[in-house]
Design goal:
three-stranded antiparallel beta sheet; 3 helices; 19% helix; five-stranded antiparallel beta sheet; alpha+beta; globular; 149 residues
Amino acid sequence: MKKIIFFLIASLLSFPSFAQQDKTPPLELYKTMAEANKANGWVQFREYNGKQWVYFTPLVMLRCRVKEVKYSINSPDLDKIFPLVACHPAMPFSLPTDAGVDAIALTLASNQAEKIAVQITYEDDSQSEIMVFEPCIGVGEATCASIVQ
């Protein structure tokens, strides 16, 4: 009897549950998504409540295949790293329910960032081109970014 119970438990543990299945799309899809989102801004700027918010949301959603997001404010140096929350392979595009606003955004002094340079390093160590974004002009409190030409 003990052998049968052990066998049943071992059998159940050997089959991954729905929540444990890896649903992470292939890396190439993530690279395509990043390229497609580039024109709208890998980062977005917003002036709100006396502060400047810089949202990294498009890149945070790609975190399951992204190793690192480097950025710099008002400089081309890429001297900072935006921390990405851990990927949950069963829900690759969802943030954990306990993720705070710091999981998607920086809060700066009003109008502090005139430009932000960004580069993605993917899980295969390939890197995106360095993109530079600036806040949109005349959009009020709307969230917006433009590529610096």
